[in-house]
Write a structure and sequence with these properties.
With about 575 residues, this protein is α+β, with helices and mostly antiparallel strands. It is built from 15 helices and 33 strands. Helices cover about 25% and strands about 30% of the residues. The chain binds guanosine-5'-diphosphate and magnesium ion. Guanosine-5'-diphosphate binds next to helix 1.
């Protein structure tokens, strides 16, 4: 489905055309009907000859209601640009065209209206005048269709032209992130608050929990209508009326937004490009009272030009905009800037960064996702999607990491692990970034909740205490000066053997076993503790625990007063 906005100077026949095309009068209010003047947005819809449904947002052309015009064209796919044949190009023809350009509307056609009221020459002149004015704009190649609705001329041709236009106009895409800029909010009898708008970004279904911004109200979708028909799900690109539970209608205004929860960044400061209109007779700087038109809303903003102090008419630059409240924005969103003091359209552009991290003096905003990652170093994939509208595969864990930050993080973690020595680092003491890094850090091993260097996986063998034990295997020194946790770890890893308050090196155990095996070869009936003690050149204090180790390991076995060989007795050494 497509949504098409009208555009053009007041009284050129926009509302009349919408009525002729749809049979629905877009002028809704008594005052509008009495004055024959569109004040606020009007809505109508029909099916084109091909069966293609189309909705119209009819905008006011009068300069006084330009803000309502801006509210209407925020989310449309194409425009129906109206110029009256007898009147020609007028100020709001120009302003509306500039606004549509700034908002990035790329598709449209021109209706040359009231052709029955002028002679052929005037009609042709206006035709040429229009062609002149749209040159260089998105309407340059657009069809110019001559119509006169009251005279019944050209309306069918216009329908066909619309069909052709929309056949080549993309509809709103579905990125699973619904957003509806509210253009009306009212109380429906018996069913609470209803908001209407053009849905983009994703599907909304009955029962959905959504969020309203800027007031951050959590709401639920009670029911949905598209073109006054009840639907259970509304698709992007359609006009939707949403019946909401959880908010009073007077708390919702035009310009508010209805979005999926946790899917949108709530932007209050944004960096954006600013194309200043060529027709402006002054520079744009931070001085001035500005209003930004974003979505369906107008928001007073403070502005700062980035990188310089002012932008010339016709020039282009970047600005930082401070919004009065949070809005669900994403890079690529368009806005129009007006100056309230002079009541003129200054320019507009594209949102580039919805959460700038660099100070204005250093900011170099762009649409690049890499820039966002680079400036943040570490960003969760979910956050990155909120910030850029793009999904990236995480680098580590749930994080997308700037390449140099990844390298630095890995180096720092490797250093931390190396410095911890044989004991390693308790994984529980690492933050979640380091824990994510661990999975891709080379040369470490995680064991029993501790991470230690794998390359020096036997640094324990080189532990000074182990060296000391090896020097006196059978009269081993006590572990004086070895920190208790380290000693426990040495024992846990089998690099030091502890028995009854005496510590040995594994070599001592091995050599003792081989010595006993040698003695048993001469005395198969068994050897006494005293004989083993003497063979090892040690004392009872050490030989008893040592033999307890050999017994426990199945190398020796007690039989009465002597030791005999066990199943695991090694060869004599
Ligand atoms: N003769 C003639 N009158 C028209 C035509 N289109 C609009 N009008 C008249 O022009 C006036 C303004 O039309 P309207 O649709 O309200 O203009 P809008 O301000 O652009 O919406 C109304 O009185 C219409 O009846 C047309 O094609 N031919
Ligand atoms: Mg009108």
């Amino acid at each position: 489905m497509h949504v098409v906005a009208t555009a053009g100077h007041v009284d050129h026949g926009k509302s009349t055309l919408v009525l002729a095309l749809t049979g629905m009068d877009p002028d809704r209010f008594t005052e509008e009907k009495e004055r024959g003047l569109t004040i606020d947005l009007g809505f109508a819809w029909t099916d084109l000859p091909s069966g293609r449904p189309v909705a119209f947002v009819d905008v006011p052309g009068h300069v006084r209601f330009i803000k309502n015009m801006l509210a209407g064209v925020g989310a449309v796919d194409a425009c129906l640009f109206v110029v009256a044949a007898g009147e020609g190009w007028k100020p709001q023809s120009e302003e509306h065209l500039r606004i549509l350009e700034l908002l990035g509307i790329g598709h449209g056609l021109v209706a040359l209206t009231k052709v029955a009221t002028v002679d052929a020459e005037t009609r042709d002149l206006t035709h040429m005048e229009v062609a002149d004015h749209v040159r260089g704009s998105f309407l340059e190649e657009a069809e110019i269709v001559e119509v006169d609705a009251p005279a019944g001329t050209g309306v069918d041709g216009l329908r066909d032209a619309l069909d052709r236009l929309l056949a080549s106009t993309p509809t709103a895409t579905d990125t699973g992130r619904p957003r509806l800029w509210v253009d009306r909010s009212f109380a429906a009898r018996g069913s609470g608050t209803v908001v209407t708008g053009t849905l983009t970004g994703g599907v909304v279904t009955e029962g959905d929990e959504l969020v309203l911004l800027p007031n951050r109200a959590g709401v639920r979708v009670r029911s949905l209508q598209t073109h006054r028909r009840r639907v259970t799900r509304a698709v992007p690109g359609s006009r939707v009326a949403v019946n909401l539970v959880g908010v009073a209608h007077h708390d919702v205004e035009r310009g508010h937004a209805l979005v999926g929860p946790h899917q949108w960044h709530e932007a209050t400061t944004v960096d954006a490009s600013l194309q200043v209109l060529g027709g402006l007779d002054h520079q744009v700087s931070r001085r001035g009272a500005y209003v930004a038109y974003v979505g369906s809303g107008e928001h007073p903003v403070r502005l700062r030009v980035l990188g310089t102090t002012a932008i010339d008419p016709g020039g282009r630059g970047n600005v930082r905009l401070h919004l009065p409240g949070p809005l669900p924005l994403v890079p690529g969103d368009r806005y129009v800037l007006r100056e309230t003091g002079r009541a003129e359209t200054v320019g507009g552009g594209e949102v580039l960064d919805v959460d700038p991290v660099l100070a204005a003096a250093r900011a170099k905003p762009s649409r690049s996702v890499d820039r966002v990652v680079d400036e943040r170093r570490w960003v969760r994939a979910d956050d990155l999607e909120r910030l850029t509208g793009e999904r990236r595969a995480p680098t580590v864990g749930e994080w997308v990491v700037a390449p140099d930050a990844l390298a630095a993080g890995l180096a720092r973690l490797a250093e931390l692990v190396a410095a911890a020595g044989p004991l390693g680092v308790d994984v529980a003491t690492l933050d979640d970034r380091d824990r994510a890094l661990l999975a891709v850090l080379d040369g470490v091993e995680v064991d029993a909740g501790r991470v230690r260097s794998a390359v020096v996986s036997d640094p324990l063998a080189a532990h000074p205490y182990v060296t000391a034990l090896d020097a006196e295997p059978f009269t081993p020194p006590p572990p004086d000066g070895v920190p208790r946790p380290e000693l426990r770890e040495l024992v846990r890893r089998g690099i030091v053997v502890e028995q009854d308050g005496v510590w040995f090196s594994p070599t001592a155990v091995d050599r003792a076993a081989r010595t006993v095996a040698g003695l048993l070869r001469e005395r198969p009936e068994g050897v006494t503790v005293a004989q083993i003690r003497d063979a090892l050149g040690t004392t009872r204090k050490f030989v008893l625990p040592l033999l307890a180790v050999l017994d426990a390991r199945g190398m020796t076995r007690r039989r009465g007063d002597v030791r005999v060989g066990g199943p695991r007795l090694p060869e004599p050494g």
